């Protein structure tokens, strides 16, 4: 009987752990530490998998197995610099930068699309114009490659969040919502989607996250969804006329890629559009629960196309198994929870909107990539954030994480805690300055409010 009473009195493991988890999450800087931990671990996993996927191929190409990972490590270092800079910038500076980043993205995208149209550049091809190497998705100068579409994501976060924050309650009117937001969004959709429908889908999700955080009415999302689907349909149809990497009088490659995942594998052409999907699925099957071991996967050596980029998740599944895939899914889940937590706790409208947009962008892109690899979603050619090989994509993503880190430090409780026990001055100079203290709440007045007629003309103008 005593043992029975002891078992009944002893709380379950979940009840013992939940208070500890709640206690950790209740700490002022928990959002900041969760963000740094999840993004940092994803970056380390990405560097490891890029080295595993490229070492033998790089050695066969130039006799140096570390050439590809060295380039990726440089991009990761530049990404950490971008993280450090964005973490230090105040919100007012980020808001001012929005229109300049947007202008640069529009100019670069316009130049890229114009060259692609005039030169009829197809996939895996490039043309040099005035010392600039132009390909379907990037611009390169002196060996430095930039994807303008990645810059467009960051521009929409900064410019869109600033615009919506300034409009405030006026967003309830269609005229205020439509001008100038919708024309700029439509322009970016065309410029980005002409070559890359997958990135356009991420941009659409980013806009939806912005408007959702702003509390826009549901009917606006319905109208935006109709416009987005119409635009996607037009861009898919335009591939038959030569848009993107399409060619006239040839099968529409965009339709084939977007519908391949619906075709059963036994009826899919292994030498055509389904080749990448079949090989990626084979790598997942080979991995099993625990994988074949890091660096021991065989399908990445020429069997899985774009093994270090679009389909790096299949290589992760082959070498680290279901366990490794689950770890990556858990880290992205923590990143999603932390980003939306920062948005919910931010008192500044710009920080709240930008945090929601950044989180939506990174999470939706990860879902589209992983869903395409496992066959649940169409293959769009999007990289997996922080893990796939790439330069500008990684740098821009790390800059976005830096902005989220700045917003996490500016949460009311975090700002009070940091200012109550400030770090040494050299730490603030090297790492990040102290966030501004939140404005104190005004006490609720018990006096009756003044009528509109009693307000003087001068006071009304000052308002």
From TrEMBL:
<keyword id="KW-0812">Transmembrane</keyword>
<dbReference type="Pfam" id="PF01098">
    <property type="entry name" value="FTSW_RODA_SPOVE"/>
</dbReference>
<comment type="function">
    <text>Peptidoglycan polymerase that is essential for cell division.</text>
</comment>
<feature type="transmembrane region" description="Helical">
    <location>
        <begin position="352"/>
        <end position="380"/>
    </location>
</feature>
<dbReference type="InterPro" id="IPR018365">
    <property type="entry name" value="Cell_cycle_FtsW-rel_CS"/>
</dbReference>
<comment type="similarity">
    <text>Belongs to the SEDS family. FtsW subfamily.</text>
</comment>
<keyword id="KW-0328">Glycosyltransferase</keyword>
<feature type="transmembrane region" description="Helical">
    <location>
        <begin position="32"/>
        <end position="53"/>
    </location>
</feature>
<dbReference type="GO" id="GO:0051301">
    <property type="term" value="P:cell division"/>
</dbReference>
<feature type="transmembrane region" description="Helical">
    <location>
        <begin position="184"/>
        <end position="213"/>
    </location>
</feature>
<feature type="transmembrane region" description="Helical">
    <location>
        <begin position="65"/>
        <end position="85"/>
    </location>
</feature>
<keyword id="KW-0573">Peptidoglycan synthesis</keyword>
<dbReference type="GO" id="GO:0008955">
    <property type="term" value="F:peptidoglycan glycosyltransferase activity"/>
</dbReference>
<dbReference type="GO" id="GO:0008360">
    <property type="term" value="P:regulation of cell shape"/>
</dbReference>
<keyword id="KW-0808">Transferase</keyword>
<dbReference type="GO" id="GO:0015648">
    <property type="term" value="F:lipid-linked peptidoglycan transporter activity"/>
</dbReference>
<comment type="pathway">
    <text>Cell wall biogenesis; peptidoglycan biosynthesis.</text>
</comment>
<keyword id="KW-0131">Cell cycle</keyword>
<keyword id="KW-0133">Cell shape</keyword>
<dbReference type="GO" id="GO:0005886">
    <property type="term" value="C:plasma membrane"/>
</dbReference>
<keyword id="KW-0132">Cell division</keyword>
<feature type="transmembrane region" description="Helical">
    <location>
        <begin position="220"/>
        <end position="239"/>
    </location>
</feature>
<dbReference type="GO" id="GO:0009252">
    <property type="term" value="P:peptidoglycan biosynthetic process"/>
</dbReference>
<feature type="region of interest" description="Disordered">
    <location>
        <begin position="435"/>
        <end position="463"/>
    </location>
</feature>
<feature type="transmembrane region" description="Helical">
    <location>
        <begin position="386"/>
        <end position="408"/>
    </location>
</feature>
<dbReference type="GO" id="GO:0032153">
    <property type="term" value="C:cell division site"/>
</dbReference>
<keyword id="KW-1133">Transmembrane helix</keyword>
<keyword id="KW-0472">Membrane</keyword>
<feature type="transmembrane region" description="Helical">
    <location>
        <begin position="320"/>
        <end position="340"/>
    </location>
</feature>
<dbReference type="InterPro" id="IPR001182">
    <property type="entry name" value="FtsW/RodA"/>
</dbReference>
<protein>
    <recommendedName>
        <fullName>Probable peptidoglycan glycosyltransferase FtsW</fullName>
        <ecNumber>2.4.99.28</ecNumber>
    </recommendedName>
</protein>
């Amino acid at each position: 009987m005593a043992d029975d009473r002891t078992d009944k009195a002893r709380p379950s493991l979940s009840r013992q752990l939940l208070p500890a988890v709640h206690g950790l999450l209740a700490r002022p800087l928990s959002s900041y530490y969760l963000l740094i931990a999840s993004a940092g671990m994803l970056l380390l996993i990405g560097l490891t998998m890029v080295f595993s996927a490229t070492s033998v191929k790089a050695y066969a190409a130039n006799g140096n197995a570390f050439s590809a990972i060295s380039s990726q490590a440089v991009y990761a270092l530049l990404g950490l610099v971008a993280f450090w800079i964005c973490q230090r910038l105040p919100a007012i500076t980020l808001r001012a930068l929005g229109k300049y980043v947007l202008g640069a993205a529009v100019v670069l995208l316009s130049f890229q699309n114009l060259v692609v149209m005039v030169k009829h550049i197809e996939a895996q091809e490039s043309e040099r114009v005035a010392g600039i190497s132009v390909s379907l998705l990037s611009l390169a100068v002196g060996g430095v490659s930039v994807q303008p579409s990645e810059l467009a994501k960051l521009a929409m976060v900064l410019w869109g969040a600033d615009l919506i924050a300034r409009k405030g309650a006026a967003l309830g009117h269609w005229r205020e919502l439509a001008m100038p937001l919708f024309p700029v969004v439509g322009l970016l959709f065309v410029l980005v989607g002409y070559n890359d429908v997958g990135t356009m889908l991420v941009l659409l999700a980013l806009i939806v996250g912005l408007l959702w955080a702003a509390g826009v009415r549901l009917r606006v999302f319905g109208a935006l969804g109709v416009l987005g689907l119409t635009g996607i349909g037009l861009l898919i149809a335009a591939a038959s006329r030569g848009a993107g990497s399409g060619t006239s009088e040839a099968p529409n490659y965009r339709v084939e890629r977007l519908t391949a995942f619906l075709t059963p594998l036994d009826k899919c052409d292994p030498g055509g559009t389904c080749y990448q999907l079949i090989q990626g699925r084979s790598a997942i099957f080979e991995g099993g629960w625990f994988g074949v071991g890091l660096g021991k996967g065989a399908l990445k050596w020429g069997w899985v196309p774009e093994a270090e980029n679009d389909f790096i998740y299949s290589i992760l599944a082959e070498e680290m198994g279901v366990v490794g895939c689950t770890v990556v899914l858990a880290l992205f889940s923590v990143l999603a929870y932390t980003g939306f937590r920062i948005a919910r706790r931010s008192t500044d409208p710009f920080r709240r909107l930008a945090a929601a947009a950044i989180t939506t962008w990174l999470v939706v892109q990860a879902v589209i990539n992983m869903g395409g690899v496992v066959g649940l979603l169409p293959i769009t050619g999007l990289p997996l954030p922080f893990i796939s090989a790439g330069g500008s994509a990684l740098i821009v993503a790390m800059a976005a994480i830096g902005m989220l880190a700045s917003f996490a430090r500016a949460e009311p409780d975090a700002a009070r805690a940091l200012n109550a026990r400030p770090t040494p001055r050299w730490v603030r100079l090297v790492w990040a300055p102290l966030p501004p203290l939140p404005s104190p709440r005004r006490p609720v007045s018990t006096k009756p409010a003044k009528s509109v007629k009693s307000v003087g003309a001068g006071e009304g103008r000052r308002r």
